[in-house]
Amino acid sequence: MDDVMNRRRFLAMSAGVGAGLNLALTARHEARAAEPVAKSGMKKALIVGEPKAEQLRAFKEAGFDGVEAGIVPVQQAEQCRKIAEELGMEIHSVLRGWAKFNDPDATVVAESIATTEDALRAAQAYGADTVLLVPCRIAGNMPRPWEYRYDFDPATGHVRKVTYGDNEPFAEYIKAHNHAIDTSRQAIERLIPLAEKTGVVICVENVWNNLWVRPEIFRHFVASFKSKWVQAYYDIGNHVKYARSTDWILELGGLIAKCHVKDFLLNASDPAGGGKFVNIRDGSVRWPAVREALARVGYDGWMTIEGGDLSPEEHSKRLDLIIAGQ
Length: 326
Hints:
- About 45% of the residues lie in helices and about 20% in strands.
- It has nine helices and twelve strands.
Protein backbone atom coordinates (compact mmCIF):
# COMPACT_ATOMS: atom_id res chain seq x y z
CA MET A 1 0.00 0.00 0.00
CA ASP A 2 2.82 2.40 0.85
CA ASP A 3 4.40 1.79 -2.56
CA VAL A 4 1.11 2.52 -4.29
CA MET A 5 0.62 5.71 -2.29
CA ASN A 6 4.19 6.82 -2.98
CA ARG A 7 3.67 6.20 -6.67
CA ARG A 8 0.41 8.14 -6.64
CA ARG A 9 1.99 11.05 -4.79
CA PHE A 10 4.87 11.04 -7.29
CA LEU A 11 2.51 11.12 -10.27
CA ALA A 12 0.22 13.71 -8.73
CA MET A 13 3.13 15.98 -7.85
CA SER A 14 4.66 15.56 -11.32
CA ALA A 15 1.31 16.26 -12.95
CA GLY A 16 0.79 19.35 -10.81
CA VAL A 17 4.22 20.76 -11.53
CA GLY A 18 3.84 19.90 -15.19
CA ALA A 19 0.41 21.53 -15.39
CA GLY A 20 1.69 24.72 -13.79
CA LEU A 21 4.71 24.79 -16.05
CA ASN A 22 2.57 24.15 -19.11
CA LEU A 23 0.14 26.96 -18.19
CA ALA A 24 3.00 29.40 -17.71
CA LEU A 25 4.65 28.37 -20.93
CA THR A 26 1.36 28.47 -22.85
CA ALA A 27 0.71 32.03 -21.69
CA ARG A 28 4.25 33.04 -22.56
CA HIS A 29 4.08 31.54 -26.03
CA GLU A 30 0.67 33.04 -26.71
CA ALA A 31 2.12 36.43 -25.84
CA ARG A 32 4.91 35.83 -28.32
CA ALA A 33 2.66 34.48 -31.06
CA ALA A 34 2.65 37.74 -32.98
CA GLU A 35 6.43 38.07 -32.77
CA PRO A 36 8.81 36.57 -35.35
CA VAL A 37 10.50 33.36 -34.27
CA ALA A 38 14.06 33.99 -33.11
CA LYS A 39 16.68 32.57 -35.40
CA SER A 40 18.54 29.51 -34.17
CA GLY A 41 21.85 27.98 -35.10
CA MET A 42 20.46 24.52 -34.44
CA LYS A 43 20.92 22.00 -37.23
CA LYS A 44 18.64 19.07 -37.96
CA ALA A 45 19.77 15.49 -38.59
CA LEU A 46 18.64 11.89 -38.90
CA ILE A 47 20.54 8.66 -38.24
CA VAL A 48 21.83 6.43 -41.05
CA GLY A 49 24.20 3.49 -41.36
CA GLU A 50 26.45 4.33 -44.29
CA PRO A 51 25.46 7.65 -45.87
CA LYS A 52 24.34 7.18 -49.48
CA ALA A 53 23.80 9.91 -52.06
CA GLU A 54 20.14 9.10 -52.73
CA GLN A 55 19.29 9.06 -49.02
CA LEU A 56 21.21 12.24 -48.27
CA ARG A 57 19.52 14.01 -51.15
CA ALA A 58 16.08 12.99 -49.86
CA PHE A 59 16.91 14.18 -46.35
CA LYS A 60 18.16 17.51 -47.66
CA GLU A 61 14.97 18.00 -49.66
CA ALA A 62 13.00 17.28 -46.48
CA GLY A 63 14.84 20.08 -44.69
CA PHE A 64 17.65 18.31 -42.86
CA ASP A 65 21.19 19.62 -42.61
CA GLY A 66 23.04 16.36 -42.04
CA VAL A 67 23.18 12.88 -40.56
CA GLU A 68 24.74 10.81 -37.83
CA ALA A 69 26.42 7.77 -39.37
CA GLY A 70 27.76 4.34 -38.48
CA ILE A 71 31.32 3.04 -38.33
CA VAL A 72 32.89 2.32 -41.73
CA PRO A 73 36.53 2.00 -42.88
CA VAL A 74 38.39 5.31 -43.16
CA GLN A 75 38.62 5.30 -46.95
CA GLN A 76 34.89 4.62 -47.21
CA ALA A 77 34.14 7.43 -44.73
CA GLU A 78 36.22 9.83 -46.83
CA GLN A 79 34.14 8.94 -49.90
CA CYS A 80 30.91 9.48 -47.94
CA ARG A 81 32.18 12.87 -46.83
CA LYS A 82 32.76 13.93 -50.44
CA ILE A 83 29.26 12.82 -51.41
CA ALA A 84 27.75 14.70 -48.48
CA GLU A 85 29.71 17.87 -49.19
CA GLU A 86 28.66 17.83 -52.85
CA LEU A 87 25.05 17.75 -51.69
CA GLY A 88 25.54 20.46 -49.08
CA MET A 89 25.06 18.02 -46.21
CA GLU A 90 27.19 17.23 -43.14
CA ILE A 91 28.04 13.99 -41.36
CA HIS A 92 28.28 15.44 -37.90
CA SER A 93 28.71 12.40 -35.65
CA VAL A 94 29.36 8.64 -35.52
CA LEU A 95 27.09 6.28 -33.63
CA ARG A 96 29.47 3.93 -31.79
CA GLY A 97 26.73 2.63 -29.52
CA TRP A 98 27.15 -0.11 -26.94
CA ALA A 99 30.60 -1.04 -25.65
CA LYS A 100 31.53 -3.70 -23.11
CA PHE A 101 34.15 -1.97 -21.01
CA ASN A 102 32.97 -3.81 -17.88
CA ASP A 103 33.19 -7.31 -19.36
CA PRO A 104 35.14 -9.84 -17.22
CA ASP A 105 36.96 -11.03 -20.34
CA ALA A 106 39.93 -8.74 -21.06
CA THR A 107 39.78 -9.72 -24.74
CA VAL A 108 36.22 -8.43 -25.02
CA VAL A 109 37.24 -5.16 -23.36
CA ALA A 110 40.16 -4.77 -25.76
CA GLU A 111 37.83 -5.38 -28.71
CA SER A 112 35.41 -2.74 -27.42
CA ILE A 113 38.23 -0.23 -27.12
CA ALA A 114 39.47 -1.10 -30.62
CA THR A 115 35.97 -0.61 -32.07
CA THR A 116 35.74 2.78 -30.40
CA GLU A 117 39.12 3.69 -31.91
CA ASP A 118 37.71 2.72 -35.31
CA ALA A 119 34.77 5.01 -34.63
CA LEU A 120 37.05 7.95 -33.82
CA ARG A 121 39.06 7.44 -37.01
CA ALA A 122 35.88 7.08 -39.08
CA ALA A 123 34.53 10.29 -37.55
CA GLN A 124 37.68 12.17 -38.51
CA ALA A 125 37.39 10.88 -42.07
CA TYR A 126 33.68 11.76 -42.26
CA GLY A 127 34.48 15.27 -41.06
CA ALA A 128 32.46 14.63 -37.89
CA ASP A 129 33.42 16.09 -34.54
CA THR A 130 31.82 13.59 -32.12
CA VAL A 131 31.40 9.89 -31.45
CA LEU A 132 28.40 8.70 -29.45
CA LEU A 133 29.49 6.12 -26.88
CA VAL A 134 27.56 3.90 -24.47
CA PRO A 135 30.34 2.53 -22.22
CA CYS A 136 28.51 -0.59 -21.02
CA ARG A 137 25.38 -1.90 -19.39
CA ILE A 138 24.58 -3.64 -16.10
CA ALA A 139 21.74 -5.68 -14.65
CA GLY A 140 20.41 -6.51 -11.21
CA ASN A 141 17.63 -5.71 -8.78
CA MET A 142 16.97 -1.99 -9.29
CA PRO A 143 14.77 0.53 -7.51
CA ARG A 144 11.64 1.60 -9.35
CA PRO A 145 12.12 4.80 -11.37
CA TRP A 146 10.52 7.17 -8.84
CA GLU A 147 12.47 5.63 -5.93
CA TYR A 148 15.96 6.56 -7.17
CA ARG A 149 17.97 8.84 -4.88
CA TYR A 150 21.69 8.48 -5.49
CA ASP A 151 24.25 8.95 -2.76
CA PHE A 152 27.76 8.74 -4.23
CA ASP A 153 31.33 9.56 -3.31
CA PRO A 154 32.28 12.80 -5.11
CA ALA A 155 35.94 11.73 -5.17
CA THR A 156 35.42 8.41 -6.98
CA GLY A 157 31.84 8.52 -8.26
CA HIS A 158 31.20 5.27 -6.44
CA VAL A 159 27.59 4.72 -5.48
CA ARG A 160 26.83 4.28 -1.77
CA LYS A 161 23.05 4.22 -2.05
CA VAL A 162 20.55 4.20 -4.89
CA THR A 163 17.46 4.97 -2.82
CA TYR A 164 16.37 6.00 0.64
CA GLY A 165 16.14 3.44 3.41
CA ASP A 166 17.42 -0.11 3.18
CA ASN A 167 19.78 -0.59 0.21
CA GLU A 168 20.67 -4.21 0.96
CA PRO A 169 18.26 -5.50 -1.73
CA PHE A 170 20.30 -3.50 -4.25
CA ALA A 171 23.77 -4.50 -3.03
CA GLU A 172 24.71 -6.47 -6.16
CA TYR A 173 23.37 -3.72 -8.40
CA ILE A 174 25.43 -1.11 -6.54
CA LYS A 175 28.52 -3.32 -6.84
CA ALA A 176 27.95 -3.71 -10.60
CA HIS A 177 27.38 0.04 -10.90
CA ASN A 178 30.72 0.84 -9.28
CA HIS A 179 32.57 -1.76 -11.33
CA ALA A 180 31.11 -0.24 -14.48
CA ILE A 181 32.14 3.26 -13.36
CA ASP A 182 35.75 2.17 -12.79
CA THR A 183 36.14 0.09 -15.96
CA SER A 184 34.43 2.70 -18.14
CA ARG A 185 36.67 5.43 -16.77
CA GLN A 186 39.78 3.34 -17.43
CA ALA A 187 38.73 2.61 -21.01
CA ILE A 188 37.78 6.18 -21.84
CA GLU A 189 41.02 7.51 -20.36
CA ARG A 190 42.87 5.19 -22.76
CA LEU A 191 40.84 6.64 -25.64
CA ILE A 192 41.32 10.34 -24.86
CA PRO A 193 44.76 10.61 -26.60
CA LEU A 194 43.27 9.33 -29.86
CA ALA A 195 40.26 11.62 -29.46
CA GLU A 196 42.63 14.55 -29.19
CA LYS A 197 44.70 13.35 -32.15
CA THR A 198 41.64 12.96 -34.39
CA GLY A 199 39.94 16.09 -33.07
CA VAL A 200 36.82 14.09 -32.22
CA VAL A 201 34.98 14.36 -28.90
CA ILE A 202 33.92 11.19 -27.07
CA CYS A 203 30.28 11.78 -26.14
CA VAL A 204 28.84 9.53 -23.45
CA GLU A 205 25.09 9.04 -23.91
CA ASN A 206 22.41 8.63 -21.26
CA VAL A 207 20.73 5.44 -22.36
CA TRP A 208 18.85 2.42 -21.00
CA ASN A 209 21.95 0.65 -19.69
CA ASN A 210 20.79 0.87 -16.02
CA LEU A 211 23.68 3.22 -15.19
CA TRP A 212 23.63 6.91 -14.24
CA VAL A 213 19.85 7.08 -14.52
CA ARG A 214 19.59 10.48 -12.83
CA PRO A 215 21.28 13.65 -14.08
CA GLU A 216 23.45 14.45 -11.06
CA ILE A 217 25.44 11.21 -11.20
CA PHE A 218 25.63 11.20 -15.00
CA ARG A 219 27.03 14.71 -14.92
CA HIS A 220 29.58 13.69 -12.29
CA PHE A 221 30.87 10.82 -14.43
CA VAL A 222 31.24 12.91 -17.58
CA ALA A 223 32.78 15.87 -15.75
CA SER A 224 35.20 13.65 -13.81
CA PHE A 225 37.51 13.35 -16.82
CA LYS A 226 38.17 17.09 -16.75
CA SER A 227 38.76 16.90 -20.49
CA LYS A 228 37.19 18.74 -23.40
CA TRP A 229 37.46 15.45 -25.28
CA VAL A 230 34.82 13.81 -23.08
CA GLN A 231 31.36 15.36 -23.07
CA ALA A 232 27.71 14.31 -22.97
CA TYR A 233 25.43 13.22 -25.78
CA TYR A 234 22.07 14.01 -24.24
CA ASP A 235 19.08 11.95 -25.38
CA ILE A 236 16.01 14.04 -24.54
CA GLY A 237 13.58 11.12 -24.31
CA ASN A 238 15.61 8.33 -22.78
CA HIS A 239 15.22 9.03 -19.07
CA VAL A 240 11.88 10.79 -18.80
CA LYS A 241 10.67 8.15 -16.36
CA TYR A 242 13.52 8.97 -13.95
CA ALA A 243 13.62 12.77 -14.14
CA ARG A 244 12.21 15.53 -16.33
CA SER A 245 14.14 16.34 -19.48
CA THR A 246 14.55 19.92 -18.28
CA ASP A 247 16.22 18.67 -15.08
CA TRP A 248 18.75 16.75 -17.17
CA ILE A 249 19.47 19.74 -19.41
CA LEU A 250 19.93 22.20 -16.57
CA GLU A 251 22.15 19.77 -14.65
CA LEU A 252 24.38 18.88 -17.62
CA GLY A 253 24.59 22.45 -18.90
CA GLY A 254 27.74 23.11 -20.89
CA LEU A 255 28.69 19.43 -20.93
CA ILE A 256 26.08 18.79 -23.63
CA ALA A 257 27.84 18.45 -26.97
CA LYS A 258 25.00 16.90 -29.01
CA CYS A 259 21.32 16.02 -28.56
CA HIS A 260 19.21 13.10 -29.70
CA VAL A 261 15.58 14.09 -30.16
CA LYS A 262 13.26 11.36 -28.95
CA ASP A 263 9.93 11.18 -27.11
CA PHE A 264 8.61 8.84 -24.42
CA LEU A 265 5.01 8.36 -23.33
CA LEU A 266 4.74 7.70 -19.61
CA ASN A 267 2.22 5.12 -18.45
CA ALA A 268 0.84 6.24 -15.10
CA SER A 269 -1.03 2.96 -14.61
CA ASP A 270 2.10 0.81 -14.96
CA PRO A 271 3.36 -0.13 -11.46
CA ALA A 272 6.86 -0.64 -12.87
CA GLY A 273 6.97 2.98 -13.96
CA GLY A 274 6.96 2.06 -17.60
CA GLY A 275 5.83 3.57 -20.85
CA LYS A 276 6.93 3.46 -24.46
CA PHE A 277 8.89 5.42 -27.03
CA VAL A 278 6.71 7.30 -29.51
CA ASN A 279 7.18 9.76 -32.34
CA ILE A 280 8.42 13.18 -31.30
CA ARG A 281 5.66 15.48 -29.97
CA ASP A 282 3.40 12.47 -29.28
CA GLY A 283 4.76 11.68 -25.81
CA SER A 284 5.32 13.12 -22.34
CA VAL A 285 8.28 15.40 -23.14
CA ARG A 286 7.30 19.04 -22.65
CA TRP A 287 9.00 20.43 -25.72
CA PRO A 288 8.56 24.19 -25.11
CA ALA A 289 10.15 23.75 -21.67
CA VAL A 290 12.95 21.66 -23.19
CA ARG A 291 13.65 24.31 -25.82
CA GLU A 292 13.73 26.99 -23.14
CA ALA A 293 16.11 24.92 -21.00
CA LEU A 294 18.44 24.34 -23.96
CA ALA A 295 18.52 28.06 -24.60
CA ARG A 296 19.20 28.73 -20.94
CA VAL A 297 22.32 26.53 -20.95
CA GLY A 298 23.47 27.96 -24.28
CA TYR A 299 22.96 24.86 -26.41
CA ASP A 300 22.53 25.73 -30.08
CA GLY A 301 23.92 22.64 -31.81
CA TRP A 302 22.77 19.54 -33.65
CA MET A 303 19.32 18.06 -33.01
CA THR A 304 19.30 14.48 -34.31
CA ILE A 305 16.07 12.52 -34.42
CA GLU A 306 16.39 8.92 -33.28
CA GLY A 307 13.68 6.38 -34.02
CA GLY A 308 10.10 6.99 -35.03
CA ASP A 309 8.15 5.88 -38.08
CA LEU A 310 7.32 9.23 -39.66
CA SER A 311 8.40 10.34 -43.10
CA PRO A 312 11.48 12.57 -43.31
CA GLU A 313 9.19 15.47 -44.23
CA GLU A 314 6.96 15.00 -41.17
CA HIS A 315 9.96 14.52 -38.90
CA SER A 316 11.41 17.75 -40.28
CA LYS A 317 8.19 19.70 -39.66
CA ARG A 318 7.90 18.47 -36.09
CA LEU A 319 11.52 19.23 -35.36
CA ASP A 320 11.04 22.74 -36.75
CA LEU A 321 8.25 23.26 -34.22
CA ILE A 322 10.47 22.04 -31.39
CA ILE A 323 13.31 24.34 -32.40
CA ALA A 324 10.82 27.21 -32.61
CA GLY A 325 9.85 26.53 -28.98
CA GLN A 326 6.41 25.12 -29.72
